[in-house]
Amino acid sequence: RLGQHCLVRRGILFPHPPTSPDVSPIEPDWHILKTRRRDYQPRPYNLATLEAAILDVWDKITVDEIN
Q: Name one GO molecular function term (predicted).
């Protein structure tokens, strides 16, 4: 509950209960991250540029998109 309270204070809301057996609340966020990383330009060509691309994409995902 403390963790959930901290998230709510930061404006991050989870529409499903945290113990829902059939829905993981992180899945839509992973989908956004993977889709945008796939379309990222310039394309990553090694591990360092892949990590940089993922961090850049993650930083551009808004709280509204996560909610």
A: nucleic acid binding
Structure tokens at 1: 């509950």
Cis check: omega of the bond before 42, within 30 degrees of 0: yes
Alpha-helix runs per DSSP H in 1-67: 2-9, 27-38, 47-60, 63-66
Nearest Cα neighbor of 37 from 53, 59, 52 is 53
Q: What sign results for the dihedral spanned by CA atoms 55, 59, 62, 67?
A: positive
| Full-model pTM | 0.58
Residue 31 has pLDDT above 80, yes or no: yes
Query: What average pLDDT does the segment 37-49 reach?
Result: 92
CA pair distance 46, 14, nearest whole angstrom = 34
